[in-house]
Design goal:
Number of helices: 13
Low-confidence stretches: none
Strand content: 5-15%
Mean pLDDT: 90
Structural class: alpha+beta
Shape: elongated
Largest sheet: 5 strands, antiparallel
Oligomer: single chain
Length: 290
């Protein structure tokens, strides 16, 4: 699914996302295409229009750091987006492979978080492990396996996320950030390929080339059993496992959402007890061996 001219695609998408007023240019009325013109980007970045056009068209593939820095400033790129630009322009980074095996120590840490939903995701946003609270929080989904697939392909997501549009946009920006860090990761490419085929909404957001790693945010869920829940989300990078993040939710003390988490914990305990009883019955019903 990778383009032969990723740098050009990225520059065009970021240029289209800016209005003249965003960079201090006068608004000259409706434009044939959205965003800045190529000659405007070139002017603001201090280079010839011809050189910038060659960059976008893929005919110039060795821009200097100074050129890329000027373009990043012109296009108002933040740190993550600028890093992505430099990776594309200088062909650096992406040498470390993402990992999918969760360390036993991390599993113990996560399972010990009795009062908070916690789960580990990989670079492709696959759910690699989750504690009982997290599984209970996402119970309404048909499969709790990949956050992007859940958001875009499971109808339940439209009810679960109070602001589905925001959740979708943030998730795609986060996947873009992962693909920048691990550009040759086959699992990321498979996820992008599947969603591109089955979700026009994903395809539209992916084409915007927004690189936004998700580190923290406030989430608003509609859980089918505990109702409205407003939680704060923190993603903690697992430095010993490239690409993995430990995601943890919390609620403001004394809030209705804190009470909802308590109820969620009780539901998860009930489910665990029910599973244990079923296992015991199944064990007792096994035929005796001679």
């Amino acid at each position: 699914m990778q383009s032969e001219n990723e740098l050009g695609d990225y520059l065009r998408a970021r240029r289209a996302a800016l209005a003249p007023a965003d960079v201090g240019l006068p608004d000259d009325g409706p434009r044939r295409v959205p965003g800045l013109r190529r000659d405007e980007v070139a002017l603001l970045a201090g280079m010839s229009t011809d050189y910038y056009i060659r960059l976008e068209q893929g005919r110039e593939r060795r821009p200097s750091e100074q050129v890329l820095r000027a373009i990043a400033g012109t296009l108002r790129l933040d740190d993550a987006a600028s890093a992505h630009l430099f990776r594309l322009g200088l062909s650096v980074g992406g040498t470390v492979a993402a990992t999918t095996t969760v360390a036993p120590e991390l599993l113990r840490l996560m399972d010990g978080m009795k009062g908070a939903p916690a789960f580990v995701v990989g670079a492709a946003q696959d759910v690699l492990a989750a504690n009982a609270m997290a599984r209970e929080l996402y119970r309404g989904f048909a499969r709790y396996d990949n956050l992007l697939r859940m958001i875009f392909l499971d109808p339940f997501a439209r009810d679960f996320y109070a602001d589905w549009d925001q959740a979708a946009r943030i998730a795609v920006g986060n996947l873009r950030a992962s693909s920048s860090q691990f550009p040759r990761d086959e699992r990321i490419q498979r996820v992008v390929g599947e969603l591109s085929v089955h979700s026009p909404a994903f395809t539209g957001l992916w084409a915007r080339y927004e690189v936004r790693p998700r580190t923290h945010e406030d989430k608003h869920f509609r859980h089918p059993q505990v109702g409205e829940v407003r939680l704060h989300f923190e993603a903690l990078a697992v430095t010993s496992a490239p690409g993995q993040h430990l995601s943890v939710y919390s609620a403001a003390p004394g809030s209705a959402s804190a009470d909802a988490l308590v109820l969620l914990g009780r539901l998860s305990e009930q489910d665990a007890a029910s599973a244990d009883r079923n296992d015991s019955v199944a064990e007792e019903e096994k035929p005796a061996t001679a």
